[in-house]
Design a protein that fits this description.
It is a single chain. The chain has 67 residues and is α+β, with helices and mostly antiparallel strands. It has two domains: 31 residues; 35 residues, no CATH class. Helices cover 39% and strands 12% of the residues. It has one helix and two strands, in the order αββ. The chain has a two-stranded antiparallel ribbon with strand order 1-2.
Length: 67
Amino acid sequence: MTLPSAAEISALQSRHDELTVKVSKLEQRGGRIDLRQCGAALRLCVQVDLKAPKYGDKADYYVLEGY
C-alpha cells in the first residue's frame, strides 16, 4: 500500500475546500428542497412552509420548507 504524497494531499485538501464552498452555495440556492413524486400520477411536489406568508398576485407562491 502506498500513501499519497504531500503534493497529492495538498491538492485533495484544496479540492475538498472548493467542493465545500460549492455545496454551501447549492444549499443556499435550493439544495435542501424536498422534491418528491406524489399521488397516483406521480406528479412533482415540494414541501412548503405553511407558516410563511404567501406571495404573488393570487397568493399562490409559497416559501419552501427550510428557506
